[in-house]
Design a protein that fits this description.
alpha/beta, Dihydrodipicolinate Reductase, domain 2, 2 domains, globular, binds NADP nicotinamide-adenine-dinucleotide phosphate, binds L-homoserine
Length: 330
């Protein structure tokens, strides 16, 4: 049975999720693709940390152990921040590895360059997990673009914010307590500032913008507001009027063809498709020229939803690319 060798960069909530799913679904993957997938290397920051036991993979804190291993066909990236993630993935592409990332902070800025580089090296880039966790929005928009044109994308793109707003409204929980709960569930970033100030949703919107419109608006032109100024009373008052706060990221082309975008909390009534989206769920409404309106809903964060999006990328790459080692030698 041919084997695909994989490395996982980062073994926190998401990296561990990828590993668990690859183990749990090993036989299914073998049956459906004809390949076994073996994780041989796991990059972490602190090798001394206590972790779940793994079989067949070596923990390392040195990226060269991954990049200099000619066996590795595919690199999953689930570390934090723009760098060193961008450099690691560029180097992996240069070595001929396919890459799959969950790192939206890095991908919002460097995604277009990575995609170009990968095309040049004839390898694939999976980035489903960068946007809306387990919701297959990247694949859906990609498919739609084959015969249609996206006019507008509007959605709840941060699971932590939606989880907090729901807890505050339904349970009268304080912002701080609801955030703590989101952190304990593995939804929030290690530093949750960008979750609650709107920046995380903004970055995901920029990734969607590149995909759907082939460009991003000037980042400075996009007003970005978070939910961190809202209090339980604001939400309860809105409920009395049958309204709800939702944190909405929105992008569209105006009549002059210029991209316009906004990110922030909006008050909506029960006729709005985002009214009933609660907890960690994300929801994205895509408006297109021919299809009209399509809404995708599902878990926007967490170990298994995000891990499953990355494994789905892997299966897609295997089927699309008949994955073979394509190492480039210096
Ligand atoms: P996390 O739990 O904080 O885990 C981060 C992992 O990356 C840790 O294993 C850490 O090593 C490792 N790491 C960090 N910096 C590193 C470096 N410079 N070199 C090597 N290893 C490094 O984070 P997470 O929640 O799994 O998120 C990972 C990525 O996925 C982030 O970019 C995040 O934005 C994105 N994401 C997260 C979710 C989610 O639901 N959590 C969903 C979608 C996307 P140590 O273990 O040694 O500290
Ligand atoms: N912290 C992010 C969120 C993880 O809550 O949406 C998924 O990208």
């Amino acid at each position: 049975m041919p084997s695909i060798k994989a490395a996982i960069l980062g073994f926190g909530t998401v990296g561990e999720g990828v590993y668990r799913i690859l183990q749990e679904k090993r036989e299914e993957i073998k049956k459906s693709t004809g390949f076994t997938v073996d994780v041989v290397s796991i990059l972490v920051k602190d090798k001394a940390k206590n972790r779940m036991p793994v079989t067949g993979a070596k923990f390392t804190d040195d990226i060269q152990d991954v990049l200099n291993n000619p066996e590795i066909d595919i690199v999953f990236e689930a570390i934090v921040g723009e760098e060193p993630a961008y450099t690691y993935l560029s180097d992996a592409i240069e070595k001929g590895c396919h890459i799959i990332t969950a790192n939206k902070m890095m991908f919002a800025k460097h995604g277009p360059a990575l995609l170009k580089h990968a095309e040049f090296r004839n390898v694939k880039v999976g980035f489903e997990a960068t946007t809306a966790g387990g919701v297959p929005i990247i694949r859906t928009v990609t498919n739609l673009l084959a015969g249609d044109r996206v006019k507008r994308i509007q959605g709840i793109l941060n699971g932590t914010s939606n989880f907090i707003l729901t807890k505050m409204r339904e349970e009268g929980s304080s912002f701080e307590l609801a955030l703590k709960d989101a952190q304990q569930n593995g939804y929030a970033e290690a530093d949750p500032t960008d979750d609650v100030n709107g920046t995380d949703a903004f970055r995901k919107l920029m990734i969607l913008s590149s995909l759907a419109f082939g460009q991003q608006p000037d980042w400075e032109d996009v007003p970005v507001v978070g939910i961190d100024h809202l209090e339980s009373n604001d939400l309860l008052d809105a409920s009395k009027d049958d309204l709800r706060y939702r944190h909405v990221a929105d992008i569209w082309k105006d009549e002059k063809g210029k991209l316009q975008a906004t990110v922030g909390p909006v008050l909506i009534g029960d006729s709005h498709p985002l009214f009933g989206i609660d907890g960690v769920d994300n929801a994205i409404i895509v408006n297109t020229e021919y299809l009209g309106s399509l809404t995708l809903i599902g878990p926007g964060a967490g170990m298994y939803p995000t891990g499953s999006a990355m494994v789905a990328d892997l299966l897609h790459i295997i089927r699309q690319h008949e994955l073979k080692p394509v190492m480039v030698t210096n």
